[in-house]
Amino acid sequence: MKRAILAILVFISLAACGQHKINIALKKQLDSVIVLDQKYRDTLSLLMDPKKSDSVAKNLSLTAQQATGHYWALQNRLDSLDLIFVEGVIKKYGYPGKTLVDSPANEAAWYVIQHTGKIHQYIDVIKKAADNNELPFHLYAMMLDRDLMDEGKEQVYGTQAAYRTLKNGHTEWFVWPIKDASTVNERRKKAGFDLTVEQNATRFDITYKVVELNEIKKIK
């Protein structure tokens, strides 16, 4: 009798393990997608920095504007191919989360969608994955903010920044308007962010200040 019970328990244990088996082949593919997603973005970030853009472009024998256009063309092509792949994966498996492909491969589809114009289409898929612990919740929070900003609405977690052109022709970066800005750091902490909205802004050389949505509409 004891042997029979033990056999049943072993069978149940093996069955449970089988249900959570990592898809190694898909994991490797998504690991590669993460690499491709970032392939030219580091260079593009340097080209966006006025203090570094000229030196980067000079090494390529191009102007900063030419170099930026060149690398965006290359990255956009990779982004398009990555999106086709990721959409196929989501259609077949749902969001490829931690249970299916482990970490950090579970973030690959998020990166691809975040860098496309299809955020609004997939935001509910991302939320479900985050709610089920298949994806870090702070990544959903970032995508939600991006979606809201794209819709011309106030963001929730203060993760997104934009820029405006001043009368002197210079550009000024600012943190996009936040709903209930006075309590944003409480929401950020709950979502898993380590930095306050003020600290996060300084990472991008932005001095945080509260901006209202109606101010942005006046600029536009």
From TrEMBL:
Residues 1-18 form the signal peptide. Keywords: Signal. This is Lipoprotein. It comes from Mucilaginibacter mallensis.
